[in-house]
Design brief:
- The structure is a homodimer.
- By secondary structure, the first copy, chain A, is of the alpha+beta class.
- The first copy, chain A, folds into 2 domains: 145 residues, Sandwich (Jelly Rolls), CATH 2.60.120.10; 74 residues, Arc Repressor Mutant, subunit A (Orthogonal Bundle).
- Helices cover 36% and strands 23% of the residues of chain A.
- A 5-stranded antiparallel beta sheet of chain A has the order 1-2-9-4-7. Chain A has a 4-stranded antiparallel beta sheet with strand order 3-8-5-6.
- In chain A, helix 5 crosses helix 7, helix 5 packs antiparallel against helix 8 and helix 6 crosses helix 7.
- The longest helix of chain A has 22 residues.
- Chain A is elongated.
- In chain A, 40% of the residues are buried.
- Chain A binds a DNA duplex through helix 7.
Chain lengths: 233, 233
DNA sequence: ATTCGGGATTTAAATATTTCAATGCCTCAG
DNA sequence: CTGAGGCATTGAAATATTTAAATCCCGAAT
């Protein structure tokens, strides 16, 4: 794994206090005193598309807070099948399973330019003991991951292929902050939906012919959410 | 909802201290002093097959520890589609989302005779503040639910119908403590796998003809796990 | 501007799944 | 014992998806 940049200019949590997206991250409820308990360095890291934060089966000792970008969690079966089981974006945590001492359940692969903060498990565990202000944040994120997984099953793994593709596009659109959204490759979309690349392509091509989906440069796209929802969900 | 029995003979946590399956439940790490902090009644409840612990969208104020039996979590979509997203059994928690103040994400429906203990959310939250001994148990259960959901996606919602049915049977078999296991209706199995009742039936019938699956009375069944795994996964 | 390479899209044929409509089978109430 | 009701199973036809094999298209590099 090639890590592009690790910025350790600030030791400990000095920078955390001034983090621009602090209200979105795990540490949002910490007090100033809590921050002073953080003596280990929290690395600010950047990953290129295609790089992995960690591999399925790897023994990881950190949790990652996503500051920017999109990450796919890929799970492999013994027989070689693989499935994307979740997408992570700003404010989500990757590698939660490390808090239970488990090895990674998935490959965590960056889809675009990703910025994360790496939080050592030992730090999280110590903070949990010393301050109650972390709990709710952790619980919330766990719960969000779980309901995300449930939705993945109900919305993205149920029904006809076209319907699933429509639901995925709607989900990507909703998750995006601007008018447009990141459109994964057809192969990745297929792996999210449990259908083939070709079936995915057929659906997106159809939506495009209907004017419900427009591709812009750079993996970005736009949909007519109303109409798509109306006609295909 | 018809609740068969609520046994409140013991107030507070007196009975918890002597619970036969305490090592499996959320309170396993509590100390004797911790138990003395429990002043609210913890109801011991029993449900018949088909009864619901709660409904999707319902505002629930308790978490349920499963002592015995099997529960399906059913999620409904606006368009009427529905999917079973998880099965809960001994030691699992139902209604975790109530800890975040959310309404229930699913219907929790009993598949067989179910025994649960009902833990008020307010109790959990207070204990969380007063003792650190609950955290790990909670974290562990959240994590178990999450990796269960991931597996549900990767193993039960991916691949051909026959393969999914085989994987479900293997999973039911593994989860069981004895040689046999609870075999749900074909309809429920279909709802777990995202396929039709008929497709499920065709698969189980085929396994039965091959001698890999045998039905015993009362929803119980046996499989030749080795062979099933070998030939269909 | 031109070429190259990697996705994306298409098509037709092969499979798989769903639909729909009958039976079949088992249990339980009477 | 017997019939009724509720699942389960089966078969055939209608659809949907996958497979396999060409193109097609677009952006990056020359």
């Amino acid at each position: 794994m090639q890590i592009d940049k690790i910025d350790r200019a600030w030791r400990g949590a000095e920078r955390c206090k001034h983090c621009a997206i602090r209200h979105l991250v795990l540490f949002s409820d910490l007090t100033h005193e809590d921050f002073d308990r953080i003596h280990q360095p929290i690395d600010d890291m950047e990953f290129e598309p295609g790089q992995r934060l960690y591999y399925q089966g790897e023994n990881i000792s950190s949790v990652y807070t996503i500051r920017a970008g999109l990450i796919k969690l890929v799970q492999h079966l013994p027989n070689g099948d693989r499935r994307i089981v979740r997408l992570l974006s700003q404010g989500d945590l990757a590698g939660l399973e490390s808090l239970n001492g488990q090895v990674a359940d998935h490959d965590a692969v960056c889809l675009d330019l990703v910025q994360v903060c790496r939080l050592p498990v030992s730090l999280i565990q110590r903070l949990q003991k010393e301050t109650p202000n972390l709990h709710q944040g952790l619980i919330n994120r766990w719960q969000k991951a779980l309901s995300g997984a449930d939705n993945w099953i109900t919305r993205l793994s149920t029904g006809k292929a076209r319907q699933r593709v429509a639901r995925l596009l709607l989900l990507l659109d909703q998750a995006s902050t601007d008018d447009f959204f990141f459109l994964p490759t057809r192969e990745d979309m297929g792996a999210m939906l449990g259908i083939t690349t070709e079936s995915t392509s057929k659906a997106t091509a159809e939506f495009r012919r209907l004017g419900l989906l427009k591709k812009l440069g750079q993996n970005r796209a736009w949909i007519d959410a109303e109409a798509l929802q109306q006609q295909f969900c």
